[in-house]
Amino acid sequence: MWEEVVDTAWDHGVPPDGSLTPRGTAARLVRLGGLDGDAAEAVHRVAGAVEQVLYAPLPRATPGLAEDAARIRAGLGARLGRGARLRAVLAPRSAARVGWALGDRWAALARRAAALRTRPAAAWSTLLGRPSRRRG
Description:
Blueprint lengths: L1 H10 L10 H12 L3 H19 L9 H14 L3 H9 L5 H23 L1 H9 L8
Helix pairs in contact: 1-4, 2-3, 3-4, 6-7
């Protein structure tokens, strides 16, 4: 849920800052996203739920997070013009994460293929999840 909120903010022009805590990120989204009222409260509720999961010994359930995400999206879109809202939906900036993930997978596949060429027995053992019979 939190990544969805951060990605939605990015799509609406607020770039992510991974160095902040959930509480700091929420304050930043409220400030840079121009959020107020229900949307601002929703960001802080979602951030509180994330902090519960990360830091509480026994996290408690927080109902209504999906509705909060919708409030945040609406609040971020309210300050934008029609074109910017359409771009956020049709060509979201956060789609770059998909490209990065595909690039990482492609690089891992290329490394495996190279290992198959250089050390076929060990590479197949690794790919199949079995320990190599070779010792040393």
